[in-house]
Specification:
It is a multi-pass membrane protein. The protein is mainly beta and 270 residues long. It has 3 helices and 19 strands. Strand 11 and strand 12 form a beta hairpin. The longest helix is centred in the middle third of the chain and has 15 residues.
Length: 270
């Protein structure tokens, strides 16, 4: 049977709508200029917002919204509008509690802490879901200024691979075999245990808009996930052994979430 013209037109229209959206998280937004705090104008702001998307895994067909996990949440802000292409691709973009000031470097900032008790069923269920997600290698997807925050790491043959996502954590099997991202750190060695990436080192790259006098534009955002147990949870220093969660834990366990951010000027626009 011949294809109806209306069907062809619909297919072309659908491709035109969703095609460009696959490459961008928030299509249609104009570039944003950033200035240092105290130098803001109507066209130039100092606050940099970080958005979070749904989490997914190559080992599971089920994606989950960020709010499904017991991570640090930002419930007071409205989610950004999503267009047809984003809806078709299943994007679920949410505001996050991670916010930065342009060109202000921060070291080991506490975002929130989560405590789980083996004697409380609701608390235990949340931790069990988190552990299962680490076992299945679920990945965060973060967005800054309409760009994915990428995790770059070395692979075989001296190559460097950049991933627009990073794992919640990883698992060491009962035989001591490190799964997935657990291979990146020799300190991840406890058998039948999970290691959660509860800290991120974020690097923001920018170039100065010289002709327009409008501050700077972000050109890239990269991060490195890390795991820290934190001796003093309320005053973290982001050093020491990794945050280990035993598969068969008892008592209470507290997971602090922290970040550090630095800014780096790029002389050439990317």
């Amino acid at each position: 049977m011949a294809t109806q013209p209306s069907t062809v037109m619909f297919s072309l229209l659908l491709l035109a709508v969703i095609g460009p959206c696959a490459a961008f998280y928030l299509p249609g937004l104009a570039p944003v200029s950033f200035c240092e705090q105290g130098k803001e104008t109507a066209e130039c702001k100092s606050e940099i917002e970080l958005f979070v998307n749904r989490l997914d895994s190559v080992e599971s067909v089920l994606p989950y919204e960020y709010a499904a996990f017991d991570f640090c949440q930002n419930t007071g802000e409205k989610r950004p509008s999503e267009n047809l292409g984003q809806v078709l691709f299943g994007e679920r973009i949410e505001p996050s509690p991670y916010k930065f000031i342009f060109n202000k470097e921060v070291k080991c900032q506490l975002v929130c802490k989560k405590t789980y008790s083996s004697s409380n069923q609701e608390s235990k269920s949340k931790l069990d879901f988190l552990k299962k997600s680490m076992l299945l290698n679920y990945q965060h997807h973060w967005i800054v200024d309409n760009m994915p925050v990428t995790w770059c790491y070395d692979v075989e043959d001296g190559q460097r691979f950049c991933n627009p996502g990073f794992p919640i954590g990883c698992y060491i099997t009962q035989n001591g075999h490190p799964k997935d991202a657990c291979v990146i750190n020799s300190e991840f060695h406890e058998k039948n245990a999970y290691y959660i990436f509860n800290h991120v080192d974020i690097k923001m790259f920018y170039h100065v808009v010289e002709n327009e006098g409008q501050g700077a534009r972000l050109v890239a955002a990269k991060l490195e996930p890390k795991s820290f147990k934190q001796t003093h949870v309320d005053q973290p220093d982001c050093s020491g052994p990794p945050m280990e969660i035993k598969n068969a834990f008892g008592g209470d366990v507290t997971v602090p979430y922290t970040y550090s951010v630095t800014f780096h000027e790029e002389k050439k626009k990317k």
